[in-house]
Write a structure and sequence with these properties.
The structure holds two protein chains of two kinds.
Chain A: E1 7-18, E2 25-36, E3 40-44, H1 51-59, E4 66-71, E5 74-75, H2 81-88, E6 91-94, H3 108-119, H4 124-137, H5 142-145, H6 155-167, E7 173-177, H7 185-202, E8 205-210, H8 213-219, E9 222-227, E10 230-236, H9 237-242, H10 247-255, H11 295-299, E11 305-308, E12 311-313, H12 319-323
Parallel strand pairs in A: 3-8, 3-9, 6-7, 7-8
Antiparallel strand pairs in A: 1-2, 1-4, 4-5, 9-10, 10-12, 11-12
Chain B: E1 8-19, E2 22-34, E3 39-43, H1 50-57, E4 66-74, E5 77-78, H2 84-90, E6 95-98, H3 112-124, H4 128-141, H5 147-150, H6 160-172, E7 178-182, H7 190-207, E8 210-215, H8 218-222, E9 227-232, E10 235-241, H9 242-247, H10 252-260, H11 300-304, E11 310-311, E12 318-319
Parallel strand pairs in B: 3-8, 3-9, 6-7, 7-8
Antiparallel strand pairs in B: 1-2, 1-4, 4-5, 9-10, 10-12, 11-12
Helix pairs in contact in B: 3-4, 3-6, 4-6, 6-7
Classes of the chains: A alpha/beta, B alpha/beta.
């Protein structure tokens, strides 16, 4: 079990709020989790649930408003200046839109070498060797394509170049924010396989943020489900997908479409839409759409509690109680 | 009208765009039929021509720089080469379209009700008050809560899922027999996607419409279509009943599409089956089979001679491949 390992990243009560005091939006409203060395944690949820903001807050692309983030024992939220920049070499992020992540007017080799240039960690012949090696790793022939411009590449190839760039400083943690959702099926499979290979080769730890449940299951050891700024369930991916405890997880899985004509077409579908994060419901945030909600859900917010080996759920009436 | 003749008959349809760098064949030689009360899925990756096909079928294409040949007959009315006036008689009343992006399909500075009224008043000749009542009915039909209030609101006040419902209501205003839905749920969340797809299914059955569902997502079409057309580089590479295509596909590309997408039922860290490369540039298509450069089964013949669609059985399953996959045995 992963719990015996050291957590590489420890997040406690992370909050991110936007806007002025009177219209304060809590995009992330107290999120805690850890990521153990060498594992992949999947983070799923619908749009607006705060999954991307969580990823960005870890990198301090957006400033957290509260809570703590520890990477390898170093508190991230209080770092400044050079120390913060140095930290970012140890965690890197890959974004959703591969084409706009790269400067269209720069050459591939220079894009990948940028982190090396910033830190002056490799120069001349050495720099060239490191960059070509990285491009090889991600399946781009440096001799053929190294001097081309980023604008000459397709989405899948741009995503490969982004991956090469993110690996240049040999980071420990890679945060992938919807990195395959803009790609076609056949290209998506290539990138997912590549990510698994590189993870093994570089000993990476991954936070994989996506809305697609099947994609997340395919790469993750553990999965966390977010709803309206909070984690409602977290656990080993096989357990979570086979026997979800939170009603929201169960609906999310039920709504996912399987490419299988024999799968039931009309499963029970969650009605309504997520409430506005400007004015979240009292108590459990899911109660307004939950068919199992009772009075207690309105008055008391459920805390994450252990229901199985590493499986935690924030619900007063988890589904296993219901099944009994 | 007789239900035995197909609602839509597309024969050898080609759409070629003239660009400064030469002609681009976005759709080449596509033929299919759609019966009354049937849902047809058109699947393919981006650039496969599925969107251009769905637009050309209903006569919707740019005025300039495009050459369309072949035929697309809706209820016997030819839409290829039809005049604007002829097409206007058909659009909205016999065929309606839902576009991919519900955010941009509606006019942001026009009240929702007015956008539905418009069709009812102009096309159906209803009076102002009758159109209003009908529009509110339609909003209710597509599951919009408190339709009377929503009628007066602007699209900006609605979420993506709600906007797509409004777009569907507007499409239904003319009581079309054919609804073309181009990626109707792409960009929506999974729970909202399931709601919209269920709504479309429900409406199709209730209003006895036919639906063409254009998508890149095999999960969307798996349980909601009776027949499937698989497109690659502007051509149909396989067509058949949805069950046949999932269980007994013969074209290697169809298999790649099916096995390349991660499944919920797979255990974590399942190695995905991939095909190398990416979809070809439509301006520089290879001579033979367009899929040959990426295909593991390609032979010399594949690179020089293009395979035509050939029947797999007598049941409407066709594929275009020189080296088809064997039919699996023991699959019911």
């Amino acid at each position: 079990m992963s719990d015996s390992r050291q957590p590489l990243l420890k997040v406690r009560d992370l909050t991110v709020t936007f806007g002025p005091r009177r219209r304060r939006l809590s995009a992330v409203a107290g999120v805690s989790f850890e990521i153990y060395e060498g594992e992949t944690l999947g983070l799923v949820g619908e749009s607006g649930c705060g999954k991307s903001t969580t990823g960005r807050a870890l990198m301090r692309i957006v400033e957290p408003s509260g809570g703590s983030v520890e990477l390898d024992g170093v508190e991230v939220t209080s770092l400044k200046g050079a120390a913060l920049r140095r930290l970012r070499t140890r965690m890197q992020m890959i974004f959703q839109d591969p084409i706009s992540s790269l400067n269209p007017r720069r050459r591939v080799r220079d894009i990948v070498a940028e982190p090396l240039d910033c830190w002056q960690s490799a120069k001349g012949e050495d720099r060239r060797r490191v960059v070509d090696e990285l491009l090889h790793q991600v399946g781009i022939d440096p001799d053929l394509y190294g001097e081309r411009f980023a604008r000459q590449f397709s989405g899948g190839q741009c995503q490969r170049i982004s991956i090469a760039r993110s690996l240049a400083m040999k980071p420990k943690l890679l945060i992938c924010d919807e990195m395959v959702s803009a790609l076609d099926v056949s290209v998506q499979a290539q990138i997912l396989n590549l990510l698994e290979d590189l993870k093994a080769q570089y000993g990476l730890t991954l936070l994989f943020i996506a809305h697609d449940l099947a994609v997340v299951k395919n790469v993750s050891d553990r999965v966390a489900v977010m709803y309206l700024g909070k984690i409602c369930e977290i656990g080993p991916s096989d357990t979570l997908y086979e026997s979800p405890e939170h009603p929201y997880t169960s609906f999310l899985l039920g709504a996912a479409l399987e490419a299988d004509p024999d799968s039931p077409a009309h499963r029970e579908v969650l009605s309504g839409e997520p409430p506005s994060p400007l004015n979240p419901p009292s108590g459990c945030r899911f109660r307004t759409r939950c068919p199992l909600a009772q009075d207690r859900c309105t008055s008391e917010e459920p805390a994450l509690r252990e229901v199985g080996d590493g499986h935690r759920v924030a619900c007063h009436f988890p589904l296993s109680l219901e099944r009994r | 009208m007789s239900d035995s003749s197909p609602l839509l008959e597309v024969t050898d349809l080609c759409t070629t765009f003239t660009t400064p760098t030469g002609p681009v064949a976005a759709v080449s030689g596509v033929s299919f039929t759609l019966n009354h009360d049937e849902t047809l899925g058109i699947v393919g990756e981006s650039g496969s021509g599925k969107t251009v096909l769905s637009r050309t079928v209903m006569g919707l294409q740019p005025r300039r720089n495009v050459v369309v040949t072949g035929s697309s007959r809706l209820n016997g009315v030819e839409l290829v080469g039809a005049s604007e006036a002829e097409k206007r008689r058909v659009w909205g009343l016999e065929v309606a379209m839902i576009f991919q992006d519900p955010m941009t399909s509606l006019n942001p500075v026009m009240r929702i009700g007015k956008q539905i009224d418009e069709i009812l008043r102009v096309r159906r000749g209803l009076s102002r008050s009758a159109a209003r009542d009908r529009a509110i009915e339609l909003l209710e039909l597509v599951g919009i809560p408190s339709p009377t209030q929503r009628y007066r609101e602007y699209p900006g006040a609605l979420s993506g899922g709600m906007r797509q419902r409004v777009v569907i209501a507007a499409a239904l205003a003319g009581s079309p027999q054919l609804l073309m839905a181009d990626e109707p749920t792409t960009g929506l969340d999974v729970t909202i996607q399931a709601q919209i797809l269920n709504l479309l299914d429900d409406l199709r059955a209730r209003l006895r419409m036919s639906v063409v569902l254009v998508t890149h997502d095999l999960g969307v079409v798996a349980t909601r279509t009776s027949r499937l057309v698989v497109m690659y580089a502007g051509r149909v590479v396989e067509v058949g009943s949805t069950r046949d295509l999932f269980a007994r596909h013969r074209m290697p590309y169809t298999r790649a599409l099916l096995e390349g997408s991660p499944r919920l039922s797979n255990p974590a860290h399942t190695r995905l089956v991939t095909i190398p490369g990416r979809p070809p540039n439509l301006a520089q298509l290879p001579a033979g089979c367009s899929f040959a450069p990426r295909c593991a089964y390609a032979t010399a013949q594949c690179h020089v001679e293009r395979p035509e669609l050939q029947p797999a059985d007598g049941l409407g399953h066709y594929f275009a491949c020189w080296n088809p996959l064997p039919t699996p045995t023991g699959v019911s």
